[in-house]
Design a protein that fits this description.
230 residues, alpha/beta, Rossmann fold, six-stranded mixed β-sheet, 31% strand, globular, binds adenosine-5'-triphosphate, binds magnesium ion
């Protein structure tokens, strides 16, 4: 069995003015290569914190976090950003696009530090925009896109570095129903491409996906229940 993410006995707490707050407790979780995991739980249950630790954006207080064979819990920040660039594509609720850059330029941004040749950059940008269904807006500046188009640009940007892992935090929170359904279609393509996907969400649209996914319920920083959907 090959796991892309392995988390063991993970704890994350914050100390504020003498009080300790446990954001994540005793988390044990494994994600198989190519699997899609849906993280559910009420606001404050720890979903974003857990995604941040998987992405190497945040350090756990203790525990083991192994992502694609690399133990990242204690890696220094400068190694973590290189690790993220290679392994992780992130799709968040707020898209963080550069508004006066075109769609194509936004998608190109993560490729800059990779020193690829020009043809390779062109190919990756073109293919990522195709998967994310945004090629028809390639030259438009990001500031003028609709919400759904902004999100699809952010998806293309997340795909450009060809990461094996896609992490999504409330990806449909700002989308209407039609755009949320388009997001699910793109997700289905990413699943078919063999990407490993973790999504934190409240949206019931993820209760009935057109492919197999595993639901992990969180409560008060703990994993309380797991099950299969669709
Ligand atoms: N830097 C911090 N200092 C103190 N507490 C924090 C910090 N960051 C997060 N928390 C707390 O950790 C808990 C988990 O937060 P998290 O953002 O992971 O929840 P969530 O499940 O993503 O919620 P939502 O559904 O609202 O996005 C919250 O109670 C939050 O207030
Ligand atoms: Mg959150």
């Amino acid at each position: 069995m090959s796991y892309i993410i392995e988390i063991e006995d993970l704890q994350k707490h914050y100390d504020n003015s003498g009080e300790r707050f446990h954001a994540l407790r005793d988390i044990d979780m494994k994600v198989r290569r190519g699997e899609c995991v849906i993280l559910k739980g009420i606001s404050g249950s720890g979903k974003t914190t857990l995604l941040g630790i998987m992405a190497g954006l945040d350090h756990p207080s203790s525990g083991k976090v192994v992502v694609d064979g690399e133990a990242i819990a204690k890696l220094p920040d400068r190694h973590l950003s290189r690790f993220r660039g290679k392994h992780i594509g992130m799709i968040f609720q707020h898209y963080n696009l550069i508004e006066n850059f075109s769609v194509r330029e936004n998608v190109m941004v993560p490729l800059v530090p990779m020193n690829l040749d020009f043809e390779e950059v062109e190919r990756r940008v073109r293919e990522s925009m195709e998967v994310a269904n945004i090629s028809h807006k390639a030259s438009m500046s990001a500031g003028r896109l609709s919400g759904g188009e902004k999100q699809r640009t952010a998806i293309a940007r997340a795909l450009a570095s060809d990461p094996e892992i896609i992490l999504c935090d409330e990806p449909t929170a700002n989308l209407d129903r039609a755009n949320s359904e388009r997001f699910v279609e793109i997700l289905s393509k990413l699943h078919d491409m063999g990407k490993s996907i973790v999504i934190a969400t409240h949206d019931p649209i993820f209760d009935h996906l057109p492919f197999e996914a595993r639901v992990v319920h969180m409560e008060d920083g703990r994993v309380v229940e797991e099950g299969r959907e669709s």
